[in-house]
Design brief:
globular; mainly alpha; about 300 residues
Length: about 300
């Protein structure tokens, strides 16, 4: 069965019913088996979701708060998944380095599980931060997004320095009133800046408390608008061409509830998206497992 379909169905179950981690774990075991069988065909966009999943599961284990007859076996299953994900990720990274060395070198840092360091607690979205209106089209395309990300990572050229900033990247990545995929890329830009401690994009010399507060403020703005977009998609019965966007927003860990959805093939085709065995999209599978990891972390540590 298509692992993205499994993940999508499980997301519906968890959001609409009292959470049962055994169902989430079952879906993640199937998705991990898919990862193990197709790792050498995935690119960076496909693997990064499994790395994020590994980080989420590892964090859940350190904060595990469940008790009862199933808690011990569930914890062991999470531990087994972490080991399997790490083993397969190492093989996937070796394959990517051979198959697409240029793109791999540009983004290999996000494939390290330590890149996805997770902080305790959950940010609350705020409806007062929702834009009154948004742009009719994306604020920038994926090529511009990639260029801005690599300037922060320091992979924009061989032996490049990190935290390079341009007026174009600053204005686009911090722009308000952007919609859809631009929002999630703006959020990722902030995550990269925070990880690399690029305080200069805020005009600061060091990543001090003021810089951190600015990042958190923009994160809250972007996430609040991503949540609003997800609610609109849910209220519109999950149009097939918006389901990939819904999952990409949900992956960040801000969890809408009460939705009903039906899986169909998304209309939007991402630039580097691959369709693998069974017609499965590597990108949709990636964001789906990342979203499920967020559900497991939320319910396993609450």
């Amino acid at each position: 069965m298509n692992p993205a379909l499994i993940a999508f169905a499980t997301l519906t179950f968890v959001s609409a019913n009292q959470p049962k981690l055994s169902d989430v774990l079952s879906a993640l075991e199937k998705a991990t088996s898919f990862f193990e069988s197709t790792y050498n065909h995935l690119d960076v966009d496909g693997v990064v979701g499994f790395r994020l999943l590994q980080a989420q599961l590892g964090h859940a284990m350190t904060k595990w708060s469940l008790s009862g007859p199933e808690a011990a076996s569930q914890f062991k299953k999470v531990d087994d998944l972490v080991r399997r994900l790490d083993f397969t990720s190492v093989k996937a990274i070796k394959a990517m380095k051979m198959n697409d060395s240029k793109y791999f070198n540009a983004f290999q840092q996000v494939l390290h599980v330590d890149f996805w360091t997770l902080k305790p607690g959950w940010m609350q979205t705020d409806t007062k931060l929702v834009y009154a209106g948004v742009s009719d089209s994306e604020c920038f395309d994926e090529d511009i997004s990639d260029r801005c990300m690599t300037q922060l990572l320091g992979t924009w050229e061989e032996n490049g320095l990190p935290c390079q900033d341009t007026d174009t990247c600053s204005s686009l990545m911090m722009a308000l009133n952007c919609a859809d995929y631009s929002l999630s890329h703006q959020l990722l830009y902030l995550i990269v800046a925070e990880h690399k401690r690029c305080s200069n994009i805020f005009g600061a010399r060091h990543m001090d408390s003021k810089s951190s507060l600015i990042i958190q403020h923009y994160k809250k703005i972007f996430c609040s608008n991503m949540m609003q977009r997800n609610l609109e998609i849910a209220n519109n019965d999950f149009p097939y061409f918006q389901q990939d966007l819904f999952l990409e927003n949900d992956k960040s860990g801000y969890l809408p509830r009460g939705e009903q959805n039906v899986f169909t093939k998304p209309k939007r085709v991402k630039r580097r998206e691959k369709h693998l065995q069974g017609g499965c999209s590597d990108h949709m599978t990636s964001v789906a497992v990342g979203a499920l990891g967020g559900y497991l972390r939320f319910y396993g540590t609450s």
